[in-house]
Amino acid sequence: MKQPNVILHTSAPETARAIVAEMHPDLTLHGCDSYAKLPGLIAETGAEVIFSVRSEGGAEYPAGAALSSPVKWLSVGGSGVDHLGSWDATTMTVTNAAGVAADMMAEYVLGTVLHFTLGLPRLRAAQDRREWDHAARVEPVAGKTCLILGLGKTGQAVARRMQAMGMKVIGVRARPAPTDNCDEVHGMAALPDLWPRADVVVVCVPLLPSTTGLIGEAAFAAMKPSAILVDVSRGGVIEEAPLLDAMQTGRIRGVARDVFAEEPLPADSPFWDQERLILTPHCSAVHDGWAEKAVRMFAENLGRYRRNEPLLNVVDPARGY
After folding, report:
1. Which of 7, 53, 226, 279 has the fewest Cβ atoms surrounding its Cβ within 10 A?
2. Which residues are catalytic?
């Protein structure tokens, strides 16, 4: 069985070390809690395997060191790999933790959709005024159409919940194929015809050259004014200027965004002031235990690596997922 040197690059390396050591007590595990320390630790230890959780903030991820010899396998502790750039799949294996928070993210999507369909902002405002709003109404989602962009683990978790709520589910993926809990599945080229059909649009795609700016002025012009948009992808997928214009001019009913082009969002960003927007700080996947789940997923994959078995969640650099 292989005996690789392993670096655990997280904000809580000792917690990660304890989890991995349960399954691999014979391995040497090195902790690292910052981008700045990672290149030096790789050189010092000759680490063959790295588990790395991308942190928030403006510092640049040290992809050059993490994707170079002696490293042979980089296990990303989240689903996105857009911070890595490109790599040579013949010499380097990259895996991700896709699915570790899919159910939580799907609950976020469902909750934000219901926020709008139940009219919660109006009801809360009436409560604050101590006013019994006789004109208040709630609206069912059953019978409406949900368009899901990206049918990875998160997109499929969203599809399960939306179909269970009685919605018609239309999925969009790079390689269309029949997918559980989807009434229809199309390729990206079909989007111009799909925007006008959707009551709810959920964005779950990774950030790739093919998805950057995927939703822009033409998409907002084609959507129903009553549409609800929920974005749990990456900040570059939706063009922000057309999105702001659509909200400010009332061309979209409501938006929930967990991701932005610049994070943390600057205090002077116009997004803070949008009444039609639920703005959250990239937290749709963050719940008690998610980080530990990602480490356990890595530890199980590490067993496969040591036994020379195929790894789970291998990322294709050409596809970006």
Report:
1. 226
2. 234, 263, 282
DSSP class per residue in 15-52: HHHHHHHHH-TTS-EEEE--TTTHHHHHHHHT-SEEEE
Tokens 């999105």 belong to residue: 243
Instruction: Give the model confidence (pLDDT) of 137-193 as tens digits.
Output: 999 999 999 999 999 999 999 999 999 999 999 999 999 999 999 999 999 999 999
Cα–Cα distance, 112 to 46 (Å, whole number)? 46
217 pLDDT higher than 80: yes
Q: What is the pLDDT of residues 219-278, one digit of tens each?
A: 999 999 999 999 999 999 999 999 999 999 999 999 999 999 999 999 999 999 999 999
**Amino acid at the residue 112:** T
What does the angle CA 113 – CA 169 – CA 176 come to, to the nearest 5 degrees? Answer: 130
Token pair of 14 as six digits: 């000792």
Please provide the DSSP assignment of 40-91 as one string: HHHHHHT-SEEEE-PPSSSSPP-HHHHTSTT--EEEESSS--TTS----TTT
Report long-range pairs for 296-299 (Cβ below 8 Å, ≥24 apart). 296/19, 297/97, 297/100, 298/20, 298/51, 298/75, 298/77, 298/97, 299/19, 299/20, 299/22, 299/23, 299/24
